[in-house]
Design a protein that fits this description.
Shape: globular
CATH architecture of the largest domain: Up-down Bundle
Strand content: 5-15%
Catalytic activity: oxidized coenzyme F420-(gamma-L-Glu)(n) + a quinol + H(+) = reduced coenzyme F420-(gamma-L-Glu)(n) + a quinone
Low-confidence stretches: 301-305
CATH topology of the largest domain: Four Helix Bundle (Hemerythrin (Met), subunit A)
Family: Belongs to the F420H(2)-dependent quinone reductase family.
Helix content: 40-55%
GO molecular function, one term: coenzyme F420 binding
Strand order of the largest sheet: 2-1-5-6-7-4-3
Distance between the termini: 39 Å
Protein name: Cation-binding protein
Order of helices and strands: HEEEEHEEHHEHHHH
Radius of gyration: 22 Å
Pfam family, one: F420H2_quin_red
Structural class: alpha+beta
Largest sheet: 7 strands, antiparallel
Length: 305
Amino acid sequence: MPTPFNQSVVEEFRANGGKVGGPFEGVELLLLTTTGAKSGKEHTTPLGFVRDGDLLLIVGSNLGAPRHPDWYHNVLAHPSVRVELGVEEFQAVAVPAEGERRDLLFERVVAAEPGYADYQERTTRLLPVVALERPAHEAGIPTEAGNFAEKMTQVHLWLRGQLRHVRDETDAYFAALAAHQGPEAPPVPGLGLRIRQHCLAFCDALAFHHTSEDAHLFPVMAGHHPELRDTFERLAEEHREVARVQGGLVALLAGIGDADPEAFRTELARMSAELTRHLDFEEEALLPILARLPWPPGPPAGTGE
């Protein structure tokens, strides 16, 4: 539950285009909305931040308390977050920095906001530095849709692009690992938080997309096209199979930084094969029908609107 003070800051922020008074007079804040690690409910927290190029850096300082703030535990479980910055609102992936990169980014944060050094001195825990990465628009993905087919194509292109991004990061990890093999090589490290966070964000988006199709799109279409009953049964089964592979990926990534890289690579290859096959079939079967339905949907017939 948000504290009354935090809630008042959130309300003032939204009412005044990102500006707040009181102790935060003149301070640039953002609102971070996360999904609860245990509750699954949304939580919005006002936070200070530091810009680093295209990144927004936030620190899990908790004012130097001995425990990480709740929002940090939330982003480890659900990396997809919503950011409000002034009057702008966008989705991002929260990626905690590791090792030397964390130390470098913390130095940049302290250079801009020296108070974070005081918070670090108050506690023995290492204050996490989290980069909010705004997903870049994939080349070739239309920015607008005029019908349901174009909207489905947008979503599918985005999912394919995010999966490709995770695969590319994983391939780069294995290439770097191979370059350091030998009798004096260190033990095989975990995959790292960057790959973990991007993969979990992809899995969350995929689950939301398929759940929405199962609950809304497919039942409506099946009611109008009973001749496609076998098609919808196949799509539903493919959703279940993709969900099983997705569950395997999420289980591997349950620990922080200790996933078995080879097992992850195997599951990721399974996901790529299953999802590509599913999306190809879904597009072949449904896009011709969806092209006749306008996007965004209009009001129901007979409402007079």
